[in-house]
Amino acid sequence: MPQSPDSGFDRVASFYDPLARLVYGSKLQEAQRWLLKFIPDGATILIIGGGSGWLLQQVLQHTSPSHVLYLEASEKMLLKAKQLNPNQIIVEFRHGTDTGLQPHVSFDVIITPFLLDLFPDARLNQLMGRIYTSLSTGGIWLFADFWPVEQKPPFWQKLLAKSMYLFFGLLSGVQATQLPDYRKRFNRLGLQEIASESFYNGFVQSKVFRKV
Ligand SMILES: C[S@@+](CC[C@H](N)C(=O)[O-])C[C@H]1O[C@@H](n2cnc3c(N)ncnc32)[C@H](O)[C@@H]1O
Predict the structure, then answer these.
(1) Using one digit for the tens of pLDDT, what is the confidence trace for 151-171?
(2) Closest Cα partner for 8 from 22, 16, 45?
(3) C-alpha Rg value of the chain to the nearest Å
(4) Is-above-0.90 flag for pTM?
(5) Which of 60, 160, 164, 171 is the most exposed place for a label (fewest CB within 10 A)?
(6) Is ligand 1 within 6 A of the CB of residue 5?
(7) Cis omega before residue 113 (within 30°)?
(8) CATH 3.40.50.150 holds for 8-211
(9) Parallel, antiparallel, or unpaired for β 44-48 and 67-72?
């Protein structure tokens, strides 16, 4: 069973998507859609923390994977994803977290869509380590998330980040309080960045990493 705070999104599942659209317009979706062109035909894919299933729908419509594991900590989000994507024989919907990933099962592509920003340092290191282990050599990690602007973030970005952490901290038990230094962690894992795009004035970034 997933443990708190990973399952706290049950509480916001009914309004998460409209809220994200209200605050960011279509930018969060654009950032995820941009990643799809990097998925090779026949790939095995792990989508972890995909939420209500919009991204899965896009993956199934625009790419040709051989198998998708849709791993979601929130039962309510998972149910929404199943309802949005019925009768998909190549998709395994699994309620759980990275803690249940088997080290001997690896994927050609792993997608972390607005997931890594949720965790404080130690838990993030653990999560990224498990994802790295589950990625095949030569496989690609598709990342979309809020990105800490390195120098002097504008006031609106600081305010938005603070408000998000306050809101999801209270409602969903998110324990992180600031955006992590992802670059340091990806470098430490030895992942090679092969493509990158920024959205929402750089506050949102999509990146493609290869495991060499
Ligand atoms: C911020 S939401 C993003 C949802 C979706 N990717 C989107 O952009 O609309 C994060 C999602 O990750 C899920 N989640 C959190 N921790 C997780 C974990 N360790 N393993 C799998 N899913 C997780 C939550 O339940 C939630 O649905």
Answers:
(1) 777 888 888 999 999 999 888
(2) 16
(3) 16
(4) yes
(5) 171
(6) no
(7) no
(8) yes
(9) parallel
| Pairing verdict, β 91-95 and 67-72 | parallel
Whole-number Å distance, alpha carbon 50 to ligand 1 midpoint, is: 6
Which residue, judged by its Cα, is nearest atom 27 of ligand 1? 51
Is 137 strand, coil or helix? strand
- Give the whole-angstrom CA distance, residue 25 versus residue 42: 32
> What is d(CA 67, CA 142) in angstroms, rounded to the nearest whole number?
16
What's the maximum distance between 2 C-alpha atoms anywhere in the chain? 48
Instruction: Answer for the pair 58, 34: CB distance below 8 angstroms, yes or no.
Output: no
Domain ranges of the chain: 8-211
**SS3 call for 73:** coil
- Cα–Cα separations (whole angstroms), residue 45 to 66, 71, 97, 137: 8, 11, 15, 14
| Ordered alpha helix ranges (H), 34-181 | 54-62, 75-84, 121-134, 155-172
Q: Ligand 1: does its nearest atom lie under 6 Å from the Cβ of 53?
A: no
pLDDT tens, 104-129?
A: 999 999 999 999 999 999 999 999 99
Q: Are strands 204-211 and 191-199 parallel, antiparallel or unpaired?
A: antiparallel
3-state SS record for 24-65: HCCHHHHHHHHHHHHCCCCCEEEEECCCCCHHHHHHHHHCCC
